[in-house]
Amino acid sequence: MPRQFYISIFLMCVVAGLAASCHKNTTERLGYVSPIEAAQPALQKIGQRAEAIVVSVPTEDWPRVYAYIREISDAWQDYKHPTVNPSSEPRRFPASMLVSQLDAALAALKEASAARDSARTIQAANDVNAAAVEMYAFYNPTIPPEINTLEVLERQIIKACADGDLDGASDTLGTVRGTWVRARPIVSARVGDQVVVAFDQYIVDQQVAVAAGNGTELSARAKKALAMLDEMSRLYYGDDED
Q1: Domain of 10?
Q2: DSSP 8-state code for residue 85
């Protein structure tokens, strides 16, 4: 997605968060959790399974891919139709638009996988994950949108390497560098300099692989960068608090 779209989502989250702050404080004291909030783990599961599909497709493990798609479909239905009592609160814009986006991406994923089209399946899985990430970020605006953008970009590098498109991977890596420049001070303040310095090195390692024309090494480094971004995200999700 374009950077401007992420910025727009973030700004709307801030405005909506301020408007809802009083209601949220009251409901938290009463121990109330809305169906929309309760369904958020479904979005995380969708993203995780979509990532697993990207890894499984190059090995042509289609039964596993189909199993992941069923889990995504089930989780998505759980999100759209929560089993807890219905809430009177509507999904705010742009959440309603993001629902349609994920619907379309999931339909494309099912179609591509049914045809066993590896390239289209990986792209559709990335699209599903991107839509889930954007929706989660809408309800959890404390997560820097740049982290979500970086995750999507690193997956695009992995896909480009799988397609043998080293030039495309190189172009995407340039976008990674620009996005990381914006995210770096925010991440440093949250998780410390050691993590950001390590991610700096992952970007350097990817650039070295590009210069050497080594797509296999580039893909491996991108996967390591993606794993680190997942860890950064977990800090913002609160998984580090026991």
Answers
A1: 1-141
A2: P
